[in-house]
Amino acid sequence: MRADPTILHVDLDAFFAAVEQRDKPSLRGKPVVVGGVGGRGVVATASYEARAFGVRSAMSTAEARSRCPHAAFLTGRFDAYREVSGTVMRLLRELSPLVEPLSLDEAFVDLAAAGLDDVSVAGVTEVARRLKRDLHEATGGLHGSVGIGTSKLVAKIASDLEKPDGLVVVPPGTERDLLRPMRVTVIPGVGPATAERLRRVGVHTVAELERISEDELVRVVGQAHGKGLYRMARADDDRPVVAEREAKSVSVEDTYDTDLVDRRLLEGLLDRQAAKVTERLRKARLSGRTVTVKVRLHDFSTHTRSLTLAAPTDNTRTVARLARTLIAEVDTSGGVRLLGVGVSGLADWIQEDLFGDTEEAADTADEPLAEEAIARVTRGRPWSPGMDVEHATHGPGWVWGSGRGRVTVRFETAETRPGPVKTFSTDDPDLVPRPRGRYDVPPDTPEAGVPEAGVPEAGVAAPDDATPL
DNA sequence: TCTGGGGTCCTAGGACCC
DNA sequence: TCTGGGGTCCTAGGACCC
């Protein structure tokens, strides 16, 4: 805990849904749900209009549909979210060199490193007001909630208090009074399992948590968690804002619409995932020693099998071969709903295979039977709801929905007013996926005057890159 | 119509080493 | 011929976060 309120936490309000409403004017003021749209999808973000109907993050999309059938259900456009996130993070770094992103829509900023003259409550309140205004302008209308306090704990809790579009500064010395009446679940790290353990010893609020001894807490929730909670209950938190964090693992996983049993199919899918993971490793110039296969069975039980190599690898065939070996150790006969491949124990990228074992895209060419089955099972739809498209004569728009050989498009962008809704054949050559950044940079922002600024070279989505959330 | 995907951190037992 | 104790690595599972 610092003497001055110099830790700031920003959280963009209903982030994914807000970006969709920005880029799709007809959805402004309407319920929007972003997440998986398949039979086993869950909600990533719901707009506040959808939350009014009881739609929440992590709820199954099926339940969200029943609660709010008239909402727009969209798959995520992560390139767009990453772009907006980048804009926000740049803004924060103008405020202070010490910025710690927690996710695309959240970050801590250390104002002590910002060289401010005035870190009084009034001073930092003014800083936050300016930040919210700048953020609103730079993002084309998004809102963020800001919390400021003497620690990460307090700043994070504060940003949540007046959502959306909130601004809460917790004056030094008032932290414990703020926390005491709150439920223990406000403390990050206290989820359902920990809350239940605490409930069993009569602890529901932070005030009650404060009355438990450290030894007792360690007995109830374990060593690390217990000691941490003992301090958090007293708002005793001096964790630093850490700007650069290195990745510890890279992984890919997919849940399938139906449970899979066929061995060759599972192996073919693992090959694809191994290719994806190693491609990401190579792009990041990383390699790893431990390969992990994750399997979720029909009964939702989750199993992992891992193996550590003597030297790090980023080789697709090495990872694929290990993945096949590892899955053989799991009884998958009852059906597999999720399959994943991960690599951890990361090292800076090392040149390997000096003797010419060159990379190949995939290792499935020798199994054409599985290829067909893979194509049937893979959920990447060519036209997923929400994706950006362009029609030769009607111009830019986005996919409302598709099915039975038809795709319905709403013609509008952030700048063009809502236009017509039209339906096409899914193989209409005049309709193509639209690369990011060509129409969706709002006017009157710094980016608009400098076209290339808002258009990162990686922002072009491949046609088949419609991976569901 | 149950329960995503990408991560981080912790625990606990066994192997292995000094 | 009763056997300590610490440290580190590996593996599997689980809680939690957004």
Can you put this structure into words, describing what you see?
Helix 4 (78-95) packs antiparallel against helix 5 (121-138) and helix 12 (263-283) packs antiparallel against helix 13 (316-327). The chain has four domains: 1-187 and 233-245, Alpha-Beta Plaits; 188-232, DNA polymerase, domain 1, CATH 1.10.150; 249-367, DNA polymerase, Y-family, little finger domain (Dna Ligase, domain 1), CATH 3.30.1490.100; 388-459, no CATH class. By secondary structure, it is α+β, with helices and mostly antiparallel strands. It has 15 helices and 17 strands. Strands 5-6-1-7-8 form a five-stranded mixed β-sheet. The chain has a five-stranded antiparallel β-sheet with strand order 16-15-14-13-17, with no helix packed on it. A four-stranded antiparallel β-sheet has the order 9-12-10-11, with helices on one face. Residues 440-469 have low confidence and may be disordered. The radius of gyration is 24 Å and the shape is globular. The protein binds a DNA duplex (18 and 18 nucleotides) through residues 15, 35-36, 38-45, 57-63, 65-66, 102-106, 188-194, 222-225, 245, 247-255, 290, 292, 300, 302-308, 338, 340, 342, 467-469.
